[in-house]
Design goal:
Oligomer: single chain
Radius of gyration: 63 Å
Shape: elongated
Structural class: mainly alpha
Number of helices: 12
Strand content: under 5%
Length: 357
């Protein structure tokens, strides 16, 4: 057992050699550690300073935004107040402007009236005479056109001629000649005063009820005999001859044979014939009113309608219908010849005299 005792001693030495303790740090390593620590502290300090600066800047921006928002709100309130004041000012200005325009219009009207008054006061005697002559002639012409009576117009022409003659103005001589020409033309057309046309209209109105229609029973005028006309029965005829003639006349009164060119005219009932005659009377009365009011075109159209109805619904072979057609033709010629009174030459000469040429 003694020889084996040295082995444990070597083992202890080996174990002690293997388990060496760490060596203490050197001076260079400690300095590096301190430098790193200082750098980290500086970086933290810089970061803290930067954070503080950013926080202050953000706080300043928030305060600035709050101030700007408050200023904008105040400015909007002020702008609204100014807008209301401007609207009130505009309303007041518009009211004052309308009042001023009304006063200006009133002043302009008063000025125009004053100028007209001054012009009328400063107008010469000849100009006043021309104005009076024109107003007199125009009034008389209107009355003549409405009533159809040219007597008052001729009297007005004579009065104006006398006034111009008393004025003794040589430059008004053309006006006197124009007055004379218009007076001569009115006297020449004075015969067409419508009395003859009125008389023919009255005659036509009285004879409308006696005009036979196309479908009336045969009653030819002028002594002409018709094959279907009722024959008279002689008093000395035998009995059988009287009976035969009566039967024949009765058959002829029931049956007519003839040519029908216008079926609507032949098929007129008695009531329709009555209203047809009344319609013709109304149209002739309308012609009378048109002639009295000097309306030529309506009178012509009514006469044309009466003529068309007469030729269409009444018997053209009747003497009365032929006379009525002749009267209608004469009335149409008279209506074409009727013209309203005019003073063209007089008014042209009057315009020349008033212009001073």
């Amino acid at each position: 057992m003694s020889p084996a005792s040295p082995l444990p001693d070597r083992t202890v030495a080996d174990v002690a050699a293997r388990t060496t303790l760490p060596s203490p740090p050197t001076a260079g390593g400690a300095a590096l550690a301190r430098l790193v620590l200082v750098a980290a502290s500086l970086l933290a300090l810089v970061a803290l300073v930067i954070g503080l600066m950013l926080w202050q800047k953000v706080s300043g921006m928030q305060e600035q935004l709050a101030r700007q928002s408050a200023d904008a709100l105040a400015q909007s309130l002020e702008a609204r107040t100014l807008a209301r004041q401007a609207q009130d000012t505009v309303r007041d200005t518009a009211a004052r402007l309308s009042l001023a325009e009304g006063r200006v219009a009133e002043v302009a009207l008063q000025r125009a009236q004053l100028e007209e008054l001054l012009q009328s006061l400063s107008r010469s005697r000849d100009e006043n005479l021309m104005v009076d002559v024109e107003s007199t002639l125009r009034l008389a012409l209107q009355q003549a056109q409405v009533t159809g009576n040219t007597g008052a117009l001729l009297a007005a022409l004579r009065t104006v001629d006398q006034r111009i003659a008393r004025a003794a103005q040589p430059r008004l001589a053309p006006l006197q000649r124009a007055l004379q020409r218009d007076a001569d033309r009115l006297r020449a057309s004075a015969s067409g005063d419508g009395s003859e046309a009125m008389a023919r209209l009255d005659e036509l109105l009285r004879g409308i009820d006696d005009l036979p229609t196309v479908n009336a029973l045969p009653a030819r005028s002028g002594g002409a005999t018709d094959a279907w006309q009722i024959e008279p029965i002689p008093d000395d005829a035998p009995m059988w001859q009287r009976i035969l003639a009566s039967v024949r006349n009765e058959a002829r009164s029931l049956v007519r044979v003839g040519r029908i060119d216008r079926p609507e005219s032949v098929l007129l009932s008695p009531d329709q014939a009555f209203f047809l005659r009344e319609n013709l009377k109304l149209k002739l009365l309308g012609v009378r009113l048109s002639l009295m009011s000097r309306q030529v075109e309506p009178a012509r159209s009514e006469l044309a309608a009466v003529t068309a109805s007469l030729n269409r619904y009444f018997d053209p072979s009747s003497r009365r219908v032929q006379v009525a057609a002749t009267q209608l033709q004469q009335l149409q010629l008279q209506v074409r010849a009727v013209e309203p009174p005019r003073l063209d030459d007089t008014f042209a000469a009057l315009s020349t005299a008033m212009a001073g040429r």
